[in-house]
Amino acid sequence: MIISVKEVKNFLISVFIPLAIGYTSSFLSRLLAGESTTTYYSQLIKPGFAPPSFVFPLVWTILFILMGISVYIIMKNGYEKPKVRDAMFYYWLQLGLVFLWSILFFGLDLRFTALIDLIILIIVVVMMILKFIKIDKKAAYLNIPYLIWLLYALFLNYFIWVINK
């Protein structure tokens, strides 16, 4: 099977966009907080199930790559199709919400607002996965680790908010 240069370019762009959004959000959070997210996180009182700070960039990088691969698969089905455009709406919406979360939590120290953002994000990701399933099951399944991580993050965010009030 021969893969065209255009397909490779589309694939790389699909993977690059969520990575760029994630890293831009982290960068803006650092600027707003005046310290790195690792430093901020280390200063919080955390529940026993909280992972060490080095875990977050590794997990998020993997999740953003999986997200990019899944959207590449969806987009291969043709953006002109209404169901693809509909699925992409939820994709872009969840990217906006995940971008906002880090800024709210770390950059602005608004942990409760970040919690609300995370609840909405989880709902949107579930809807996105359901839209993706109708187009390509593999693309949808690639987002299951993301959903699991978000559910874990929800509990972590909640307990950090409660403990650090």
Blueprint of the fold:
Blueprint: H1 5-33, H2 37-43, H3 55-75, H4 82-107, H5 111-133, H6 137-141, H7 144-163
Helix pairs in contact: 1-3, 1-4, 4-5, 5-7
Specify the CATH architecture. Answer: Up-down Bundle
Unreliable segments of 5+ consecutive residues? none
CATH homology group: TspO/MBR protein
Shape: elongated
Overall pLDDT metric: 96
- Helix content bin: over 70%
- Total count of domains: 1
Share in β-strands? under 5%
Tell me how many strands there are: 0
Order of helices and strands: HHHHHHH
**Quaternary form:** single chain
Radius of gyration: 17 Å
Calculate the terminal CA-CA distance, rounded to whole Å: 57 Å
Largest sheet: none
Structural class: mainly alpha
The CATH C-level name is Mainly Alpha
Which fold does the CATH topology refer to? Answer: Ferritin
Tally of DSSP helical segments: 7
Can you give a write-up of this model?
The protein has helices at residues 5-33, 37-43, 55-75, 82-107, 111-133, 137-141, 144-163. The protein is 79% helix and 0% strand. The N and C termini lie far apart (57 Å). Helix 1 packs antiparallel against helix 3 (55-75) and helix 5 runs antiparallel to helix 7. It has a single domain (5-163), classed as Ferritin, CATH 1.20.1260.100. With 165 residues, the protein is mainly alpha-helical.
Features:
Ferritin; elongated; mainly alpha; about 160 residues; 7 helices
